[in-house]
Structures are given as C-alpha cells and as structure tokens.
Amino acid sequence: MAARDGGEGDPGADRVALYRDMLLIRRFEEKAGQLYGMGLIGGFCHLCIGQEAVVTGMEAAARAGDHRITSYRSHGHMLAAGLDPRAIMAELLGRETGASRGRGGSMHVFDPERRFWGGHGIVGAQVPIGAGLALAEKMRGTNNATFIYFGDAAADQGQVAETYALAARLSLPVVFVIENNSYPPGTGLSAAKGPQLIDRAKAYGLPVRTVDGMDVLAVRDLAEEIVLPVRAGKGPVAVEAKTYRYRGHSMADPAKYRTRAEASRVRETRDPIDTLRARLLETGHADADRLRAIDREVKEAVNAAAEAARGDSEPAVETLDRHVYAEAAS
Amino acid sequence: MTVEIRMPALSPAMEEGRLARWFVREGDAVEEGDVIAEIETDKATLEFEAVAAGRLGRILVPEGTEAVKVDTPIAELHGLEAPAPAAPASAPTPATPKPAARNRPRSRAGVHLEPGWPADLHRDVLTVREALRAALAAEMGADETVFVLGEEVAKDEGAYRVTHGLRERFGAARVIDTPVTEAGFTGMAVGAAFAGMRPVVEVMNMSFALQAMDQIVNSAAKTHYMSGGAVTCPLVLRGPNGAMGRGGAQHAQCFAAWFAHVPGLKVVYPYAASDAGGLLRAAIRDPNPVIFLENERLYGRSFEVPALDDHVVEIGRARVWRQGSDVTLVGYGPAMGAVLEAADALEADGIEAEVIDLRSLRPIDADTVIESVRTTHRCVVVEEGWPQGGIGDHVAATVSAAAFDWLDAPVARVTGADVPMPYAEGLEAAALPVAAQVVEAARRVAYR
User: For chain B, which residues lie within 8 Å of any Cβ of chain A, measuring from their own Cβ?
Assistant: First the structure.
C-alpha cells in the first residue's frame, strides 16, 4: 500500500507512507484489543502488534493485480491491502456493514476487489489456497504475484510442505512469507527440533532469503528484489522474516512462555515503528511535528472507524441462511 | 485332459476387454507362467499368463477381437499327459457372459434403456466412463477457465481412464498432474476457483479425499458464507466412491452422507451414464463447490445417452426410473442396481414399485419423494453407505414429517452394514445391500 500511496521515486515520501501504514496497524490493533476487553469483540482475536513491518514492507513491493492471503492473524494484512478500517472493525464487531457482513469475524475477512483472500482459521490452510491463486494467474499468462503469509506454527503443517512441492513443480508465481514471530501457540520455538523453517522451503528447490522482520525498509528492499524473478515466471521464492509478537497468541493467551522483561526489551530496542521514526528524524525525511500530525490523524481515523462501526446494526436474524450458496449468473 | 482358457478379469470392475495379441500359436508348448496373451481394457494393458503347462489347442478368439466378455473361453489348453486330439472337438462354446441380470431394463447387449424419453429422441450407447469423459471435454471446449488436476490425470490419462485424451486435446497447461498431495492440490484448486477458474479435481479414490476434508469443508464449502457472499468457489471434486470389488476398508467406503452433511457443498451421485454426463456438465457450470461421486463398478456399464450437444441434468432433481403405486423405492448411486432389480422381482410378484433415483444428495429432491409416498403410502430407502446418519435417515425423517398421514408403514431402510468394508469376498457381499433385501423390505412395508 505504501508504494501505491507514496510518490514514485521519492524515498522520503515512501518512508513516511510506510510509517503511516505501520502506525495504522498498531493503533487499529490496540483499539481491537480494547474493544475485546470490553466484550464487544467475541470469540478469537489475534493481534499483530510488533509484527507490523513484515506485511507493510512486503506490500510495498505489491502492485495492482497481485494476490495476498494469510492466516487468522490478519487485521494488519487487511489494512496493508487497503481495506477500509471501518469495514474491518465492523466485521470484528459482527455488524452487517462488516467486510464479510458479520458472517466471518476477525479471522475471515475477504475482499476480491483488493485481491485479499482471507483470513483463514485453520493453521496453514491458506498456503495451498494461495498456490491456487497463483496457478490462476499463471494460466491466464499474467505476471501477477501471490503473497502467501503464514506463521512459524503453520510452517510445521504438512500442507505447507505439499504446497512447496506443488509450487516448485508447477513453477507458480508465489512469494511465501514466513512471519516467524518466535512463539507458536503455547510454546517457545526453542522446543522444536528439526531443520530451520526456511531450510524446508530450500529443500524443495526454492530460492530462500531471511530478513529482519522488525526493519520495514529491509523487508521492503528484499521484497522488491525477490518479486522480480517471480513476476518473470521463474517460480516461487520463500522469505523468513524474524519478527516479534508483543501480545499473546490470541487475547486468551497469557504468554507465560516468556518473561515480561524480554518483551519489554524487544519493544525498547527493536520496535519497528520506533526504529523507522528515529530513522526518519535522523535523515530529515520528516520532522517531529509532521510525525506527531500523522500520529494524531491515524489515531483519529481508527477512533472514528471504531465509533462508526459500533453504531452499525447486526445482521438481521432473517438473513441467517443467506450466502450459503451462490446463484448462477444468468 | 483339455481345459478352456477363459478371458480373465484383470480388475474387480472389468467386464470385457480387447484381446490385443496372442504370443503363442496353436500347437505351441507353454510352461506355467508363460505370457501367452496381451489384454487391453480402457484402463490398462495387461499380460496374461498360463496357469498350467501344456500345449495350446485351438485359439477360439483371434487377436484383435474387441469387447471380449470376462469368462469367455478364448483358447484350449491340452494337458501334457494327453496328446492333442486329432479330431476337432465340439464346436466352440458360445460366449457366456457373467450373469448380468442385476440391472434391468436391459437390451442390446446389456445396455440400459432409459424410460420416459420421447421415442424419437436419438440415443447413443455410452459407458459411464465415456459419458464423463465427453462431458469434461465438452465443458473444457466451451469454457477455457475449466481445467483438470489430480494424480495421474494427464500423462497416464486417469487411473480409471476418465481423462483419456484430454491432455492431448487441451494441452498440459489445462490437464495437470499433481504429486500425491490431496490436501495440497485440493486447496490449490480452491484458490484457483476463488480467482475465477473452474477447476475439476480428480481424486483417485474418495477415501483419499479425507486427506483434503479440511479444504473441502472449511475452505471450499464455507468461504462464500464466511465472506458474506463476496467469494465464490466453483470447484468440482470428482472420483470413485464406495465399494469397488474387494478394495478393502480404506478404499471402498461410501462417504456420500458425510459430504451431504455440509451446507455450502452440492453433492451428486449418479447411476446412469446419461446422468453422469449431464450432472457433470451442470456441476462444472455451477458457481458452488460440487462433490461428484462416481463408482468403479459403474464406469464400464453401458447406458443410453441422449445424442444432444448440450445434455445437462439439473442438480437437485431426482429421477423416476419407473412408476408404481404400491411402494416407493428410493436409492442413489450404485445401489440403484439392487433397487431396479428388486423392482423387477416385485413386479413378478404383483407389487408395483415406484423407483426414485435421487442422483443429487444436496440439495435433495424431497418433493419428488414425498409426492410419490403420498401415492404409494410406503417407502424403502436403499444405500450402500453406513446406516447411522445416512441419507436414508434423512429421507425417513423428511417423509415422516411431510407425509406422516399418508404412510401405512414406517419408512424402511436398507443400507450397507455397520462395519468397515471387509476384504473377503463373502463378507464384502454381505456388507452391501442386494435386491433380495430390498424386496424383503418392500414386502414388509406393504404387508405382503
């Protein structure tokens, strides 16, 4: 989104756009956590606070026609794909105005127009689906890429390995993005045995790269580089972005597998938004007043989205059985 | 001693084959295990070995003969201890096809006659396999977003030869071989369908689709709903389901009721070739995911098929095979064989059965069944799947709710046995519904 919003060839404007995009995700997630705590958001709510740089940097290399698909930790990806924060918030609140008309919830938002295909609640299931999006583009002869996001937990799923095999064999235009936030649900990754996550993709012949997922510029630069061969029909690539999730796996996770001190240390030293802010000030691409104005605008936008969504109606009960089947286009 | 060498059945479902080549000539000595002939079916080419040593006598079926029925004597083999008799033996035994009275109405060499069609409707005779293949080819020809993927579908032209010739005609980009990754390639098809393609996934066996059940249920079936109608998934997943002839518990179970349980899926299980072809074309055109169930025992069976360019059978409509006023027999899929045979037997006893082939299991044509029961006042539901939570349960509940006052007896069910499918021949036969059970159930509800 940043690349589309920012001025072409103006590195300062691009960087400020990245800052704004990450901040929008951060503020949105904080608001979602707040509404969850108030009992207004039900069920599951997986926040990506701390991980903003990964999807923001990757999306900077995306262009119209590209597809993206992700897991249940998906609010940031929706925002980065350009979905309206109000439609997302309304979905979290279960409103008819929600992106999925209140039928989906936090984990199940879709927007075919923006080529955002969910939002999937089964760990790893989005990965083969993403390969199918890419297969459609390959069959149509376009050079659109598909970005498939999944976490370190999903990387253990068998169907991820199956998809590496399929994508490699069919030479599909896929960028696999492992968002390694260091903590699969309920456990520390250090307990896991076996090859490093990215080495598994390598074993299927995919070119692989790793990147600091807390550094949005590094992610963006890598994304712009690796998407080129994908667009050129040279087959899939895989990236592992090392990032950090500040909150629990979901709102129900107390995150007892790590110390509060560790989370604080990461936040103080590696926070993706603070890091970029410091860099913008240092390089003179933005001054403090400008960044403060952005902070205020983003906060107001999120508050306005939340307030508007709270005022919207829930789906009418009479519509319970609507949208089970699609009607044939006549 | 002279024995007859008979046309072998090289697979459980094989009914006939081509005697492609003799490797021996009359008078040749053969050892046990020598390859003596090559036999082709539309599924495979196989070498046929001598089961005993001896000297080949007369060849009764020359090489190149098409459609040689299983069990037909194809040559004589003289035992080593006895010299070949000089005088010609008795005239060649006429071909004796396997008892095939299972399914009527039949005529023209075992072809099903389709009831209720106009007399002047021009018909072809096709096997179920040929009808499926023709439907796939027609839809691929009409819509370039239609493509086929699965294991062995392209280069090997399908484990059951349904996709024979498709890669040659439509190219490798539209007939795609996948690795053995059911969850992976089914999920991939779901994604392609989201993006506007119309994938037809072939699973080699519906038991293997259980590996992909998450993608089928959680992704394909639910996404239209979960997205508030924004995303559609026009996907067909097809392949053989249920008993195949000693396939064993992990290859031969019927999962029709499982799939039919799921809102968001459509499920069809045709019996006749005309329905197989017509429903497949409808399934490919449908904007929803369709589970298209086939059966190995039906692939080679011949039926009349309307010679129409655009023979499409609407999903959700049952088919009435015959009308009757005494009892309604409801079935679907390969169980229709037992149902139709039972209807013949009942007719001979003066009981007129109305025979309904559901064809579609979701949506299910309850109206046709209820309408019939209101006339016959009796109903028997027949299926090869397990009894608990089966389609029969659903039909019985539906009929009881909608036609209770018309019923003269409780709805009876005839189902597959409540056991994993056994391997031994006798046990397997005992696990599947047969006509005699249907007759018995019909008599029970008719009090006759």
Answer: 147, 173-174, 176, 178-179, 181, 183-197, 199, 214-215, 218-219, 223-232, 234, 263-264, 266, 285-288
Range of the domain at B150: 111-306
pLDDT digits (tens, 9 = 90+) for B140-195: 999 999 999 999 999 999 999 999 999 999 999 999 999 999 999 999 999 999 99
Same structural domain, B267 and B358: no
Q: Are A302 and A24 in contact (CB under 8 A)?
A: yes
Burial of B82 (0-12, 13-18, 19+ CB in 10 A): exposed
- Point out the residues of B that are catalytic: 182, 251
Residue A37 lies in a domain: yes
Could you give phi then psi for residue B198, rounded to 5 degrees? Answer: -125, 80
Q: Which of B347, B292, B346, B339 is nearest to B320 (CA)?
A: B339
Cα–Cα separations (whole angstroms), residue B401 to B294, B359, B365, B390, B395: 31, 22, 15, 17, 10
If DSSP codes are grouped into helix, strand and coil, which group holds residue B319? strand
Distance from the B124 Cα atom to the nearest Cα atom in chain A, whole angstroms: 30
**Chain A residues with CB-CB distance to B231 below 8 A:** 110, 112, 117-118
The string of pLDDT tens digits covering residues B213-240 is 999 999 999 999 999 999 999 999 999 9
* Cβ–Cβ contact A134 with B under 8 A: yes
Q: What is the number of domains present in chain B?
A: 3
